[in-house]
Amino acid sequence: MQGLEFYSATTEGIGFLNRESGAITYVHHPEKGITGNRFNDGTCDPAGRFWIGSMALSEETGAGSVYMFEKGKSSKKIDHTTISNGLAWNADHTLLYFIDTPTKSVVAYDYQLENGAISNGRTVISIDETEGFPRRDDHRF
């Protein structure tokens, strides 16, 4: 990645977006054979790895996944998601928080900064249906 390039994820896969030219250079697609899915949410973890969540254009329940991308390869981290809509880490980088909007909950995973491994997923916040749907709109969590 060069100075003006940033990670990008589209229906075409994962690439680097050049902010000056607007060109995207695609380098990988973890769901290449899955038609009807797109990436909905992405952010970098504290170590600079790119995490992206996919979803079905039809919003089919469980059709999406969450991937971690680094060094030209991706690994699936969370399976059977519907609308990936929030990824964030706590201040000491020991927890990953994830929102799958239709579940109306925030799930925390134990997180290992050195390799991006997650484990022990558990619901830490449940949103009452009268309060709407959870999603991450900013960088405060």
TrEMBL record:
Residues annotated as domain SMP-30/Gluconolactonase/LRE-like region: 5-134
Pfam families listed in its UniProt record: SGL
InterPro entries in the record: 6-blade_b-propeller_TolB-like, SGL, SMP-30
PANTHER family referenced in this protein's UniProt entry, alphabetically: REGUCALCIN
Family, as annotated: Belongs to the SMP-30/CGR1 family.
Protein name (record): SMP-30/gluconolactonase/LRE family protein
